[in-house]
Each structure stands twice: as C-alpha cells, then as structure tokens.
Specification:
It contains 4 helices and 2 strands. It has 98 residues and is α+β, with helices and mostly antiparallel strands.
Length: 98
Amino acid sequence: MINYLKKNKWRIILSTIVTLVPMLAGLIIWNMLPATLPIHWGPTGEIDGWTSKGFAVLGMPAIMVGLNFLCIIATGLDHKNKNQNKNQNKNQNHLKCY
C-alpha cells in the first residue's frame, strides 16, 4: 500500500486538487450565493431538491474527496492489481473505482 501511494503520489495530489476546485470556487463567490441552492431537478425540469449554501460549497466537495481517497485506498489494497498489465496501471491505476 505504501509503495502504491509513493508510486502514484502526483496523481493522487492532482486528483485531490481537481476535486477541491469547486470548493474554492464556492468560497470565492460565497457572498453572491443564495442561502439555499437547488441540487436536483425532476423529469419535468422543476427543482425538487434544495440544500444549504454551506453543504453545497463545503460538504459536497468534501464527500467527493472522501470518495476519491476511498477509491485510492481500495485500488492500493487490491492484490490482483499486481498481475495486470503494467502500462494499463500506469495510466489508470487509481481511477478504477470511478
């Protein structure tokens, strides 16, 4: 597991940064956002799900980072992973959970 993390350090850092960009964008425009934000639209196009500004800006990206780390850990612990094509692993190793 430790070797996997060391070997893929920059990919892990990059995927975490990309996952946190929406949080940064939300914090930059925090004062312009309404108190509640739509998060789901029904089949007719009507909004049928709302959430608070705090959860939309901070909570949802935090959940995405958590899922990203879960996928990284699951992939690193996969013992069958060692028998796969090395070139495939080089390009897609920690993205297999997606």
